[in-house]
Amino acid sequence: MKHALFIAYHYPPESSSSGVLRTLKHTRYLGRFGWRVTVLTLDRGAYEETDPKLEEQIPEDVRVIRTRFIDVKRHLAIRGRYPSVFATPDRWIGWWPWAVAAGRRVMKDDPVNVIYSTSPHATAHLIGLSLAHRVGVSCRSPATSAGSCR
Questions:
Q1: Is residue 141 part of a domain?
Q2: What beta strand segments (E) does the chain contain?
């Protein structure tokens, strides 16, 4: 079986965006086509809006890895303000170190054929890029036909 690693902020039980449905549907149906799926996402505490019914739709064979994070807005703000440099490219950059470490462990134990990152938030793409560089995978964007990682 081929192995797909998904990197997504929006994944159940998060429910503030319709983007959660895109990744949920991909991960629900890929198994039918011979793919193993691992999803790399944040601990549930990251989400302000949740829906347990969405989480019930995750198939049992989908491996979900939830990592620690630092939300710049929540954890580094003083009186509701924080330097924008700490939130580049977005307030979830504090997820990057834990997600990359978890992704490396996944790929060491179970190599992946595809790394799929989705936004918002751009940090997910930085995580995907970091992991792709680690294993020498070329990156492709729907907007271009050429790889951009190597």
A1: no
A2: 2-7, 35-42, 63-67, 114-117
Reported as a single tens digit per residue, the pLDDT across 45-63 is: 999 999 999 999 999 999 9
Residue holding tokens 């997504």?
8
Asked if residue 144 is part of any domain, the answer here is: no
Q: Is the pLDDT of residue 137 over 70?
A: no
Asked if residue 81 is part of any domain, the answer here is yes
H-state helical runs in 2-147? 19-29, 52-55, 72-75, 96-109, 123-135
CA 56 – CA 21 distance, rounded (Å): 13
Task: Print the domain residue range for 38.
Answer: 2-135
pTM, whole model, 2 decimals?
0.87
Q: What is the CATH number of the domain that holds 14?
A: 3.40.50.80
Task: Collapse the DSSP code of 27 into the 3-class scheme (helix H, G, I; strand E, B; otherwise coil) and give the result.
Answer: helix
Dist. CA 40–CA 128, nearest whole Å? 10
| 146 occurs within a structural domain | no
**Looking at the DSSP assignment, which residues form a beta bridge with residue 13?**
none
